[in-house]
Each structure stands twice: as C-alpha cells, then as structure tokens.
Amino acid sequence: MHMAAKKSFVAATVLATSMSLAGGVSAASSDSHLPAKGRVITLRDGHGIKVKSVKVIGSRQLLVSIAPTALAPKSITVRILLPVGYQPDAAIAYPVLYLFPGTSGHSYDWMTAGEAPKTTKPYRLITVSSDIGFDGDGGSWFTNWVDQHTALGKSQWEYYDIHQLIPWIDANLNTIRSRTGRAVAGLSMGGYGATELAARHPDLFVQQASFSGAPEIDRDLEARLGAEAVIGGTMVGLNGVEANAPFGNHVTNEINWQGHDPARLIDNLRPVRLWFATADGRPGVYDDPVTDPGGFAGSAAVESLTHTSTDLFLKHLREAHMTAVVYDYGAGTHTWPYWARDLRRFVPTLMRTFNDPPARPRTISYKTINPRWKQWGWTVSIKRADHLAFSELRNAGPSGFTFGGSGVATVVTPAFKNVGQPYKVVVGGHSSLMKPDKRGRLHIRVPLGATDHQVSVRIHP
Question: What string of DSSP letters covers 128-164?
Fold first, then answer.
C-alpha cells in the first residue's frame, strides 16, 4: 500500500460548459444541474495509487493517469464518468458501476464506442472504467499473475482492482461505500473479469453483468480448450510474454485455473444479481459481412467462443437452482454496437437493483483456493501442506457453520453482541467455552486433517 507522510493530490476542475463529451454527447450549458463553474474535484493519492495527472473532458468526465503499486513500474488510465450535477461537497452518495473493456481495450472505449455518457446521463450513477492491460495490449485476465517476472513488471491485477481501485474511488468521490451501491460489468475479457471478481469477492458487489463475456474458463473441457487457446494467444501475440503467465500451466497449476473460474465458484454468487448478454456469431442487425468479410469472420468466431462459455456457465447456474437475467439474442457478433445496446438494456436493471438492493444473506457460503481470506465479516486463515487448495465455509451464521478443506483453519466470526459473555463452541464432537475478543469476535480453531474433510461447528450462547 502506498503511504506518504504528506499526501499529494491532483485537482480536476469540472466546468459547466457545452464542451463535447466522449461518445459525441454534448452537455448543454443552460443545464442548472451541472456543477458551478470552477468547482474543484480533488483526486488524492492513496491505497497504493499515485495520481499522475487528471484531464477534464466535457462537463462529466475525468481522464486520470495513475501509477498503482500493484502494477509497478507501469502506469495506466482510468475514466471516471460523473452524474449530471455531481457536487464533490454534497451530502448525497452515489452508487458506482465498475465497467471494464475487453482484450486490447482502453479505459476510454466505453466512453466513446460504448456510448456510456449518453446511456448514463439520466441516472445518478458514477461510472468507472479502468484499463485492464498496459497500453492496449492483450490484457490482464484480472488475476495476480503466476509469473511476476515478465517484461511487464508487477501484474497483480486482482489486487489492483479490489484493494486499490475500489477503495481509492471511495476515498475520493461521494460513493455508497458498500455492496449495496457497487456493481461490476464488462465486455469480452471484461465480462469474464466482472464475473470472476464478483465470484471471488461477492461481499463487494450487489450486481454483475457480462456482455459477450467468457464466464467459464476451466470447468468443462470445451471451455478449457477455448480459454487456453485465447489466453495463450493474447499473452504471446499481444503481451509478448509466456503463454501461461497469468494462471500458470494447466498441468502444474490446474488448481489456480479452477480457483479463478467462476463456473467452479457458482455458490459464491448467490447473493449477487447476475446479468448476461450473448450472441452466437451469425450476422445480426449490426453486421454487414459483405462490406467487411474479414472483420466479420473474426468477430463472428470470437462471439461463438464466448457464447459457448456463457452457455456452459448458465447450465451450471441452472443446476445450482440459481437465476440470472439472460439476453441470448441469437444472431450477432463480437462488436461494439451490440455492447452499447447491452449497456442500454442493463443500466435500468442496475438502477432498480441500487434502488432496492437485496438484503445481506442470513447465512454465508464461500469457496476459494486462497489460504487466507475475508468475506462478509468472516476471516479465515489455513495452515496446510498445499498453498493453493479448495476450502469452503458453508451456511455460516450466528449458530455456527460447516468448514471443509485440509490442514488447520482458524475461523474468526463477525462480532457477537454480548462481548463479555462466554459461548459454548462445539467443533466436531469437542466442546469448549470461548469468550469473544474485544471486538466481539470468536476465534475458532478447526482441525481438518491432511486430506479434504468437513467439520461441523456449533455456537451456543
């Protein structure tokens, strides 16, 4: 995390003028809801992000160059699209949509080709679109790379997205700083990223959306072969690094692929509202294969691959008795007119979710390969032979939980109301009295054994 004795900052002045917005949308200077002339929005360093420069585009958009420590020594850009009339010192807090581009994309793609300024203008919504790679290369695949020694330097992309970008935005803008006011969406690789981030961090997002994304990369052989070819191709051909740099080799690092495949983390997504758009690659309403046969062939082939991935993911969703909003519009290709339309369809649904968010689930289930994690107020650390291996917390609530995995786990509960009161804790068949710590949390040791094992834990006041 970037720390400094004296925080530096860059101030961006948002002017109420009729300057042209990205995407060809204009803001009328007579609009009384625009910020007063000279209003200053201050973007400060923090949470591992150094702000290098800020450029104002029109009356709503900021182009920000940042240097995150998770991606050192590289810099990337972030586009911030503010709601009409945003006031930096106002009491109102706005929901945030994190909206990602696809392979070889840039932070500005959604602002221009995706028509995000026009689509979001009627809504009280902050939209944040970050680069997902360096200088429009093949992209990151939203993970902390297995190979941290490529020519691209640090590539801890999941850490950047979750532990740097989100808290930095919350620290600098008037946001709803909880899952009820936060959503994640994206196209193609960004659609995978939106689904993967939501599956690995469901307590951060109330809504997910994938536009022509690849939400499954490993669970079924068909998806695995397609994902391996595409990921390897982007790494070698576009990033100039080794094919297995992000996730590792399938033979030696299969568990890492599994742990970043949303299709293997389906239950984690139960508290998140899900939204998918996909097509099958045939010529659709926005395609003209006669005038651009080469471009059509490429976009058709990619859409066919993402359609397969989405179909397989949705099959597993149904098997788990879970639901999603799905637009499978048949004919269509991997091109911007469809994604701009997807965004127009999605944003009204998103705003309904923000206006009436689902309640926090009464009991929590969470599955991961990580040896240490925090979700929904629960904290887990595991000592085991394998650094990466699946473990699962199931039906966790005030009366207890079931924990599965190997090694020895320490499970720290959310705070109980009666801090000074001892609780009877039954781990497997062994009972003991346990007092909460000063914050009201119980620290429960759960021995699991050398191989996968499930242990029931009951908590009695």
Answer: EEE-SSSTTSS--TTSB-S---STT---BHHHIIIII
Q: Which residue has the tokens 């022509």?
A: 212
Q: In which band, very low, low, confident or very high, does the pLDDT at 22 lie, cut at 50, 70 and 90?
A: very low
Which 3 state secondary structure label does DSSP give 223? helix
Count the neighbouring beta carbons within 10 Å of the beta carbon of residue 407. Answer: 19
User: How much is the mean pLDDT over the chain?
Assistant: 91
Q: Which residues fall within 8 angstroms of residue 188, CB to CB, at 6 or more apart?
A: 102, 103, 105, 211, 212, 213, 214, 302, 306, 334
Asked if 91 contacts 77 with a C-beta cutoff of 8 angstroms, the reply is: no
Structure tokens at 46: 């923090």
Report how far residue 184's alpha carbon sits from residue 269's, in angstroms, rounded to the nearest whole number. Answer: 13
Element (H, E) at 230: helix 221-233
Q: How far apart are CA 369 and CA 405, in angstroms?
A: 10
pLDDT at res. 40: 73
* pTM to 2 decimal places: 0.91
